[in-house]
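FAQ: What does the model actually see?

It sees only this:
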Amino acid sequence: MASRLHITNGDAAANTLKGLYPDDDVLPWRDPMTEGPFPSGLDLCATSKVRAGYLAGPGLPHDQILRDFELRDQHLAAAKRYDDVTLWFEHDLLDQLQLLQLLDWFAGAQVPGGKLGVICIGSFPGVEPFRGLGQLGPIEMNTLLDQRAPVTPLQLGLAQSGWAAFRSPDPRDIEGFVQRDLHPFPFMEAALRRHLQEFPAASNGLGRTDRQILEVVSEGTSRPGQVFAANAALETALFLGDWGIYGHIQELCNVRHLLSCRPGGEFRGVLDAALSKEEFHRQELSLTEHGRRVLVNEADASEFGEVDRWLGGVHLAAGQPKWRWDEATRCLVAAEA
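And it is asked to produce this:
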């Protein structure tokens, strides 16, 4: 077995590392963690089963996804056998969540001190805007090895607390966590505060992503790919990939009817086998009257369909505790059921 293991988010960065260090092993940590359930109290194996069930769908067979998670987790379980393990991550929410999950696991696995190191960056000279490690070539990536820092017991303890807070059914646990001294994780507070902004706003019931989508469509951006790009430009750090944005569009259009789509009235997703790539991108979005009223705070989005989604350990659904994000105080509030 190779003496060094590199763990990173995304295949682009993983492929660069494979080319850069051909004698080492590279493990891409594939999971779009900004969306979907992460219930509390589950170990890595049980969490992977939950994630596989959530991610499975048309074009993504459950058995294949579950097997990919199992192989990933088995590779991680072998980390003790390496002389050196390096975590390569960046500043956005997805990477910060993956960092928490991995360090929580390493804390429980009691990997010997000195083996585990981390490289985590929020910028790179000459790369503007910096979105992630996948933008870097082998020469640029190799320069980062000098920034490798050993993971400390303090970081492991904080990661355990942060991971528990993210998976808690009470999102106020995240608010409590980000008020702690998080200097060992310089990008964590901003990332988790962005996560909290996905809770329905007190003013109109829209999470930040949904609000931004309605805003860019109201300003005349109508094609799916254009909406994705315009929404990304509103983020300080990369938040959702294109499939994630298209999922939000599909709910806004087909479930809540805050958007309309031509032709046909309903938005057809990227995995619709009967739709060509060209047909998908030719779809045109527009704001409905319901959408206009919600966007200007004349109505609440909950009036046009109950949300059923997970944000970490919080299930936003009928019959569950209702949480709202107060933009004025930048805090969560418990709404009346």
